Amino acid sequence: MLKSAGVGAGDEVIVSAYGNVEVAEAVLAVGARPVFADIDEATYCLDPEAAEAALTSRTAAIVAVPRFGYLAGVRPLQELGRRRGLLVVEHREGDGRPDRSVLAQRQVRAAYLDRRLTGVRTPGACAGHTYQEYVVRVPGNGRPDRDAFARAVRRRGVECQVPVKTPVHRMHAFRQEVCLPETERAADETLALPVGGPLSRRDLQRVVAACNALGGLLQPAF
Question: GO MF terms on file (predicted)?
Fold first, then answer.
């Protein structure tokens, strides 16, 4: 889409550093330069104000990624693109919008976890959230707290994943000296708990019991 729109050498494209290294690679592949902007704390999408602050006379496009099923996070970026006359490319992850039965199942499970989880920050309410992933925050003094929490949850038989281990701007091929506090915080705090697939009520109860039994944060293991 970038190539067909004429984006190329000398152009800049605003992208997120919170995951999706393939987006930055695609920008390089057409000869343009990826410029990283910070994310919105609630939706994990590019923050429109941060994206606008990163615009220059060389900006040709913005790539919007609806992370974890937060589809509504893309709309403010589309509005920014219309206002500033820029191409906004939407890069969909995974299954995009699932069918109604799958979506309803995820939403019911997410609501169950929302009501019962303690010690972690549950996902914020957002219109159109498809819960492609159920991502919580384990806030504390940085990466060791979240990682210790994840190890302890796994020992209790609950699968969980760190959705973004290293932001793209920290990677050698894309390293930039840029201030992205929300991106850094999200990379250190986020943890994806199971909400899709063949989960029973007992499985969900196990997730809640494992998380709540930890009493919130854990200290780093030395």
Answer: transaminase activity
Same domain, 208 and 104: yes
Return the ∠ at Cα 65 (arms to 64 and 68), rounded to 5°: 150
Distances (CA, A) of 113 to 92, 108, 118: 25, 9, 9
Confidence (pTM): 0.88
Q: 193: part of which helix (H) or strand (E)?
A: strand 190-193
Greater model confidence, 43 or 124: 43
pLDDT digits (tens, 9 = 90+) for 52-90: 999 999 999 999 998 898 877 788 999 999 999 999 999
Question: What is the chain's length?
Answer: 222
Contact 180, 169 (CB under 8 A): yes
Which residues, including other chains, have CB under 8 Å from residue 65's CB and lie 6 or more apart?
Answer: 16, 19, 20, 23, 45, 46, 74, 90, 91, 93
**Under 8 Å between Cβ of 50 and 64:** no
Give the closest residue to 140 by CA, choosing from 158, 121, 153, 159: 121
- Split into its structural domains, the chain has a count of 2
**Packing angle, helices 100-116 and 201-213, rounded to 10:** 30
Task: Identify whether residues 144 and 42 lie together within a single domain.
Answer: no
Mean pLDDT across the chain: 89
Residues 186 and 125 in one domain: yes
Same domain assignment for residues 105 and 83: no
Q: Does residue 206 fall inside a structural domain?
A: yes
